[in-house]
């Protein structure tokens, strides 16, 4: 199929982009990487009246260190994030997860902000952004606002972004050297959307876990922090098998898998539990040190 008719605009400044969004709101679609949008246009799942191409807008693809952590521009390509030394040093969870995102050709065009705006429940980046406590910075003619990742993702393909807003960057906090990170997923083929995936961050002080951040992808409609599972680790030593077993039980009790689809809910829960056990064991063995080096 071919797309329905639409206007095409290619603004060269952020102000021009925001003015167009303010005028057209729900009738507009934003084009950055287009890896999800273009198939939706061709299938007429999306039928915008106007397509706003932001590829000429400057600075939306910048990855930089800030006083508080790392800022990733919304138009930063997946492969640029994957190969960023700043991201690898400060946010190794993203580097690990990026290796699972689609395939090389798609990573060359797909964008960080585009993945968050789509809010696919099986995508890696929403779960990682939630796990890391990232903030989505959205801009409109009214100014900027910061939306915590926990509040940004609301349902399948649904976010807190207003119709006249554009994601301009994503801000991540600074993590000290006591944090350990791990990501893994199971998919039918490498690069496919995850059947189930897990993002984990643990802070270790004198061999005791003092903080934990855990989020899943591919299981529920929205990625979220799994506080009950995190609580099983806090105050314990990572290499205690009973701790991992207790956390796996809490994981299965906490998650509410989406019903239907190709894979049964029980199967997704089984994968998530196995991933939790695997990642906790790998962090206990110090595998994170090699990945952060």
End-to-end Cα distance, whole Å, is: 48 Å
What is the radius of gyration computed over CA atoms, rounded to a whole number of angstroms? 19 Å
Summed up, the helix count is 13
Class based on secondary structure composition and strand pairing: alpha+beta
Portion of residues within helices = 25-40%
Q: What is the spatial order of strands in the main beta sheet?
A: 4-5-10-6-7
CATH H-level superfamily of the largest domain: CO dehydrogenase flavoprotein, C-terminal domain
What ranges have pLDDT less than 50 throughout 5 or more consecutive residues? none
Strand content: 15-25%
Helix and strand pattern: EHEHEEEHHHHHHEEHEEEEEEHHHH
CATH T-level topology of the largest domain: Enolase-like, domain 1
Number of domains: 3
Tell me what the CATH architecture of the largest domain is: 2-Layer Sandwich
Would you report the number of β strands? 13
The average pLDDT is 95
Shape: globular
The biggest sheet, with number of strands, parallel, antiparallel or mixed sense and barrel status, is: 5 strands, antiparallel
Task: State the name of the first-level CATH class of the largest domain.
Answer: Alpha Beta
Describe the structure.
- The protein has helices at 14-24, 37-42, 78-82, 85-90, 92-98, 104-109, 112-118, 124-131, 149-152, 227-233, 241-254, 265-284, 287-292; strands at residues 7-9, 28-31, 50-53, 63-65, 69-73, 135-140, 143-148, 153-155, 158-159, 166-173, 179-186, 196-205, 208-217.
- By secondary structure, it is α+β, with helices and mostly antiparallel strands.
- The protein has 3 domains: 7-53, Uridine Diphospho-n-acetylenolpyruvylglucosamine Reductase, domain 2 (2-Layer Sandwich); 63-173, Uridine Diphospho-n-acetylenolpyruvylglucosamine Reductase, domain 3 (2-Layer Sandwich); 179-292, CO dehydrogenase flavoprotein, C-terminal domain (Enolase-like, domain 1, 2-Layer Sandwich), CATH 3.30.390.50.
- It has a 5-stranded antiparallel sheet.
